Amino acid sequence: MTFDVSRVRAAYPALSDGHAYLDGAGGTQVPTAVIEAIAGAYRSGIGNAAGAFPASGRADSIVAGCRRAIADLTGAEPDGVILGPNMTTLTYRLADTVSRQWGPGDEVVVSRLDHDANVRPWVQAAARSGATVRWAEVGFSTAELPVGQFGELLSERTRLVAVTAASNIVGTRPDVPAIAAAAHAVGALCYVDGVHATPHVPVDVRVLGADFYATSAYKWSGPHVGTVVADPALLETLHPDKLAPAPSGVPGRFERGTAAFADLAGVAAAVDHLAALDPSAAGSRRERMLASMAAVERYEGQLFTHLLDGLAAMRHVTLYGQAARRTPTAFFTVAGYSPREVAARLADRKINVWNGDNYAWELAGVFGLRDSGGGVRAGLVHYNDAAEVDRLLAAVADLASGSVR
Questions:
Q1: The pairing of beta strand 158-164 with beta strand 354-356
Q2: What gap in Å lies between CA 306 and CA 112, rounded to an integer?
Q3: Helices (DSSP H) in 139-260: which residue ranges?
Q4: Above 60 in pLDDT, residue 403?
Q5: Which pLDDT value is given to residue 1?
Q6: Which helix (H) or strand (E) holds 344?
Q7: Statement: residue 405 has pLDDT above 60
Q8: 41, 74, 201, 312: least surrounded by Cβ within 10 Å?
Q9: Where are the alpha helices (H) located in 218-316, listed in sequence order?
Q10: β-strand 189-193 against 81-84: which pairing, if any?
């Protein structure tokens, strides 16, 4: 199919303000269907869960619908879908729970490619339990995460490997199935941060080999809701702290406090939106999701090539990362300007980009940028178009002559 980006953009009211939203790696805008789903939940009247009255029943239905939607997005089981406020909160919760089975002599593997939300919770949990942290290193020039090193990092004492499915600043997509297989070969679990990968590629947690897969709806056109999916049988073996009267079964015992029910309705609407991005796709929502995200991956890849080629041609721009498999995320610096100055100059021309380390704390250190303001990040998503990329390239080119105002 030919990806009809004009049709897609028409679904997003925020895009009419004249700004080029090239900040998708930090969070996306939402389509009208998501806005209406959230408003509709409030209009209908919702109560807290598990009550005897209709408004409570609507809340229960929203939660169940959200779990089914996330399962269709990721290839998981609805009963293995944990819902929460964000990926960081849920990862800390699971790190605290999983690490109760660790002790001195045990080992945990984390990577310098990851967002700190898939590093620090595990490092801190290891410190509390007495476990040893081992680091998977990143190639400086390529920003690849070589799989071969895991053979040396893993041992019979490895309890968990934490790895990203895609870097949130350079887009590197490591070979997660091979890493997960290596972890499983020594009896370890694999916790995969899918926050940055999910908006860009078809996801199947079984193919990835992920024991846990985390993602955040606000990165793929939904509201600020996080989720971690896992095999329900695995969750049955874990016992997080919870209130005495709170649900004791899974996944409910991992969900603290009252859910944001209206937002969960928005999550389901966002999944429906993604599944409809290829209007020619047929079959179940899961089948349509896989087809649509494959179309997204192809479209974004073409757009990203245009962006990278344009930036690489500029002598005053330094690009970071050259991985063979990437999501459409460019990280760069501009000679003579701090990353914040670049972002501000571009904002003056209604172009939204991020600056800083973007919580990729370890990778910013690998690049030597942690103490100098990080870099500039332009992140494409499925509603961006070539005209927006051209605007960015023109504005960055103008920085060479100082003509941006």
A1: unpaired
A2: 28
A3: 150-153, 176-185, 205-208, 232-236
A4: no
A5: 67
A6: helix 339-348
A7: no
A8: 312
A9: 232-236, 261-275, 285-312
A10: unpaired
